[in-house]
# Entry
Amino acid sequence: MKRRDFIQYTGLGAGALMMPSLLLGNDISAEALLNPGMDIAIKKRMADVALNTAKSLGATYADARIGRYLNQYVFTREDKVQNVVNTESFGIGIRVIVNGTWGFASTNSVNEDGIKKATDQAVAIAKANSKIQKEEVKLAPVASHGEVSWKTPIKKDFKDVPVSEKVDLLLSANAAALKNGANYVNSGLFMVNEQKYFASTDGSYIDQDVHRIWPTFTVTAIDKSTGKFKSRQAMSAPMGMGYEYMDGLASEKLKGPEGLNLYRNSYDIVEDATVAAQQAKQRLTAKSVEAGKYDLVLEPNHLGLTIHESVGHPLELDRVLGYEANYAGTSFATLDKWKTKNFKYGSEIVNLVADKTQVGSLGAVGYDDEGVKTKKWDLVRNGILTNYQAIRDQVHMIDQKESHGCCYSQSWNDVQFQRMPNVSLEPGKEKYSIDDMIKDVEKGIYIAGRGSYSIDQQRYNFQFGGTVFYEIKNGKIVGMLDDVAYQSNTQEFWNSCAKICDKDDYRMFGSFFDGKGQPSQISAVSHGSSTTRFNGVNVINTGRKI
Amino acid sequence: MAIYTKEEAKQIMEKALSFSTADTCEINLSGSESGNIRYARNTVSTAGHRSNQTLVVQSSFGKKSGTATIDEFDDESLKKVVKRAEELAKLSPENPEFMAPLGPQEYDKSITFKESTAKITPDYRAEVANSSIGPAAAKNVTAAGFFNDSSGFSAMMNSNGLFAYNQSTNASFTVTMRSNDGTGSGWVTRDYNDVSKFNAAEASKIAIDKAVMSKEAKAIEPGKYTVILEPAASVGLLGNMAFAFNARTADEGRSFMSKEGGGTKLGEKIVDERVNIWSDPLNPDVPTGTWNGSGQPLKKTTWIENGVVKNLAYSRFWAQKKGVDPVPFPNGFIMQGGDASLEDLIKGTKKGILVTRLWYIRSVDPQTLLYTGLTRDGTFYIENGKIKHPVKNFRFNESPIIMLNNLETLGKQVRIDGNLVPYMKIRDFTFTSLSDAV
# Structure
């Protein structure tokens, strides 16, 4: 299924960061989700079949990942349930190094015979490719962890919550939107559980249980007389949490400008849908923006996507080195810039950190998909570029000895490679509220939520839209704007960063569908920040007459 | 081997259907084998092989449906999967938009399977990479490419007597060539059902030449320019436009195809009268399957004729609601071209820009089908009928509707991502900013 088909399927519309393979897997009943799956002792035995076969065929390294991926999706529109999908995908992926070359094969036959055949295939691929190999794979050493486990710290497992409860919640949100003036509403709830078992010839046997959730909707308002239609998407974020994210706790809510509700670690979908309908209607008559330079006050659920595209991607070492040149592209943040230890990525208040351990984030795991214990590290400190994101076969190229622990594969069926960890902007040290960001702006725009996004293949030039826009004049919000997009250059933009709210405003944006690699794979990642101001950014008007 | 013959598939599905106790039952059976190789920095990086087969059962009681899937096809497994689908159907809410499975259908014989592609080996893939890397290195250029091949089958049968079967193969190739000094970049893409038509060295040479030609690009002011769009440059915008041909969203008033005051643009002229777009599963250059996942036959369908919208896609449910015949979405599209070669188009251009491809295309405003994105991997300034020099990449903000209203000349058609798209010369294409990216 392609990204576009997925959007069509869900009716959620473009703008959401959506990619294909989330729907991979076989349909099963909701009850079958509760089946515990293969016993861990058998997993260990099966993994050892792969590792021993690989070694006997001449592999100098091998790893095996036995994965069980359980997903549940609920789709509704207006007063109807469109679909409830439960899927399960189970199999093993085997990666080997033979003659200094990678080989990979996978199979859903998780038995001795199936595993031996797949291992043979992986070795055959490595051998065929080693004839044209010019750079031998060098792996950074990793400690043997023995037999260990890790679990997302959830309070409510989505698998224990009845489907009817989930359906009722979405239909209540739809009803609230329709009552408040929406013409159409599509809503969806995506729940993911990755049960991953990893074993390698380095002596680790790692069992992990990873959970994620994403409630979302698109509300559309139409003015038939003018033929205009406008939509407003949910202000939720996908999270590395259990079903407790849907509790709508008052303690996790923040008040934004103009009646906007903002959510931290708990989401109130009915409340958000109510406001969404009102704002979608407002957008139909909102003032069209006048193009020019504006100070932008960017809300975290908006800024997260800008961080993702302009910081997360350019600092992926595989892009920097050219491994992604044929697909996602390369990077402006080249090794020579980094080696100066003086490359001004942003203004002095800009501190960007990579983190695979952050509680509640989509990227949080105990160990990555090549058995490296996860951690947190600096990418940009006091505005200076300090490091990249790198895995075992890359770190030697930047003279480092230890993998950063950000290797990931979307399933047992795909080979693991370097993926973006959570990349976040640290909150400001001084106590600032959202009002403090706005009050000294003469001519500006407050932007909340994700919108259109596009950036070049080296991550210089970007253009971002948003969900809602408010005009700021002389320190005050004076009304809603529309047709807004800002264009900038990554380094120029981050150097225009003028003021950051403190930790009390910190929230996470997330995406289930970060895409990279060929064949393309998705990865889920979060980006935290507090409301932040960027001065003098170029805004264009995207309205057209046809 | 994950690929069943027509008879084998039929037997498995008949067996599964014999276990059904539901009002209706529909079975989809598919399998595929695929292999790939990836290279970068003039050496191979990763490669893999995948094998997969699945049987999906949808059982329905009244308007309640349940779906279950399995990848083992012995009698016990088939019995189990049918039973599970029926249990799920009984538990599920009524779907007000449920449509009973179709009865027997007549399908054209597809031409999507080619033995040459089904026989590809790991050594063949390594040779593809090699014939790209070798010539690149000789020209101080670095190759990063990807070759993927797959062969598979899909089959369908239901309790109302429908049976469908198809086999298909596909091979696709892309390579990015970057000059070793980092100032030039070229790219090429190829896709075929029949891999014997593919020449990796020939394709790679185009990208290598572009990498060398695009070195040290000059910046020119963004603005409105006459552009020559190679098919790889326009296919993304055209594909997004095709996606708007959905009758339901048009009727609901939330699409570019919706009309002021209600109704749709069906029958209205929306682009230049030389624009003709259709789909044809039997076109020998871009064949597709002749039926879709609901068992509807796919036939030649005209979408735009002389600039006028001739058809919108109607799902079976929406067609019934509106009292019209269903019109299924196609698997690819064909846009009529002209006689002009790329060289002819360049020769006939006084001032303009040649665009190899557009990248990172995203919707900006669904109301006007406005999209943004960037040029990439070979953008050149044309003056007095000649390529004068490479130019720095641009960001564009443009609608395919505006683009096709500003059509100057249609060139020859090329297969691209399963579609046939002509070279096009377009006036007043809107570039809004410059990018430093190479």
User: Anything to note?
Assistant: Chain B has a mean pLDDT of 96. Chain B is about 25% helix and 40% strand.
